[in-house]
Amino acid sequence: MRRFAKSKPQREPTIALINIVFLMLVFFMVAGTLAQPLDPDLKLVETRALEGQAPPDALVIYPDGRLTYQGAAQVDAASYVASLSDEDREIIRLVPDRALPAETLVALTRDLRAAGAQKVMLVTQRALQ
């Protein structure tokens, strides 16, 4: 009588499959979180050529440091914040001109916060060509 050698059942390569799926998962997590580079022609702040007007409740600052609110000139940040109600001091919207130096913008936001503004939000326009 002939004996046939029992063949071992073929094992499925589950560990290799799990490793491949895990590597694909990591790849898609990393690829999904990378941000697209900004287009070199993109200009993030554009206020001189806005279509329309600044929001009615926004403080506008010009390149020379001049402040206006609803078309009326403002003396400084402290007097502007003092003229607001407690509710309006929670969020102050600021529309900076594109040519405004960053130092001036930072100093103004610091002055607004020191005068009692809870939060200062910059209003900008993304100009995609």
Automatic annotation (TrEMBL):
Transferase is among the record's keywords: no
GO cellular component: plasma membrane
GO biological process: protein transport
GO molecular function, one term: transmembrane transporter activity
Topology class, membrane: Single-pass membrane protein; Single-pass type II membrane protein
Subcellular location: Cell membrane
Signal peptide as annotated in the record: none
Superkingdom per UniProt: Bacteria
Pfam families: ExbD
Sorted UniProt keywords: Cell membrane, Membrane, Protein transport, Transmembrane, Transmembrane helix, Transport
Family statement drawn from the similarity comment of this UniProt entry: Belongs to the ExbD/TolR family.
Protein's UniProt name: Biopolymer transport protein ExbD
Organism the protein comes from: Sulfitobacter pontiacus
Lineage: Bacteria, Pseudomonadati, Pseudomonadota, Alphaproteobacteria, Rhodobacterales
